[in-house]
Amino acid sequence: MESVTSADVARDSGVSRTTVSYVLNDTPGVRVSDETRARVRASADRLGYHPSVAARTLRTGRSDLVLYVLPDWPLGPAVDTLLDHLAGELAQRGLTLLVHHARSGRPLRELWRTVTPLAVVGVLGFTREDREAMQRAGIRAIESPFSGDVPDVFAATQERIGRLQATHLVARGCTVLGYAAPTDSRVRLFAELRLAGVRATCAEAGLPAPVVVPVELTTQAARTALRTWRDGDAPVTGVAAYNDDVALAVLAAAREEGVACPDQLAVVGVDDTTAAQFSVPTLTTVAQSLDAQARHLAAAVVAALDHSGTAGPPPDDTLRLVVRGSA
């Protein structure tokens, strides 16, 4: 089936293609009656016509696309929620979010040359070559507050997650902690930083280092991990899990092994997913204020586009402990 063109819309609405262009691109300074505008838009909707983004970019010299480059991370609930909030924040500013999941190894410059975005946001920053090439092309290169070395906001936030988990477990009397690590190598950086927070808290409290066990998301793997923690003269009494999925696997294994939670084993997850409030027992977890992070990222994009400086420091109240039955 052939695609619908502006000529089709013009014929259907009884106006010229120029008028169609004026109406659908909201061209300023052009007088078109409300009746004609309504007729053109009705024809476009009925025929299913959508103006070409590339053509509009050539005419106006700008695109409304913001390209958001994600590293090769799994798309879990936290990332999905952040992107959803960010898309909403940008939409309120007349901008469209386009997400690129960097898995193929395709050079970034090939992508932005194809879609001609107004700006590119890099979660973990850009190479100097990409940054300079985008600057020459008139594309704003925006590095998120989680990129760069000074200040290392990303690392500090991840370590604080582990500290919140461990501090709560220690406060409720756990003297030997375990860390339920993920098995997906793509999240190794997150896991290592969170584990560093748990280790630091144990050291400051005079407790032994946490017993680290990778937990694959299967019943048998979780039961094996649980036995590792519980065997020996000093059984683990509190587990900080990489995220809620891993924590829920540990809770399921505890039920099957007859280990009472939280009396014999307290468990804390991360992300405050929907399932956390329905587990047995309900899951204590660290929630991240993803809406605040999304608002800050959107503000950073707009500030860069408007050449109005920065969006200010990232929010520092993005983490909170949600205490439920498991700890």
From TrEMBL:
PROSITE patterns tied to this protein: HTH_LACI_2
UniProt-recorded Gene Ontology molecular function terms: DNA binding
CDD domains according to UniProt: HTH_LacI
Record SMART domains: HTH_LACI
Coiled coil: none
Alphabetical list of Gene3D superfamilies matching this protein: 3.40.50.2300, lambda repressor-like DNA-binding domains (1.10.260.40)
Keywords attached to this entry: DNA-binding, Transcription, Transcription regulation
UniProt-listed Pfam families: LacI, Peripla_BP_3
Domain of life: Bacteria
Domain HTH lacI-type positions: 4-60
Protein name (record): LacI family DNA-binding transcriptional regulator
Source organism of the structure: Pedococcus ginsenosidimutans
Lineage, opening ranks: Bacteria, Bacillati, Actinomycetota, Actinomycetes, Micrococcales
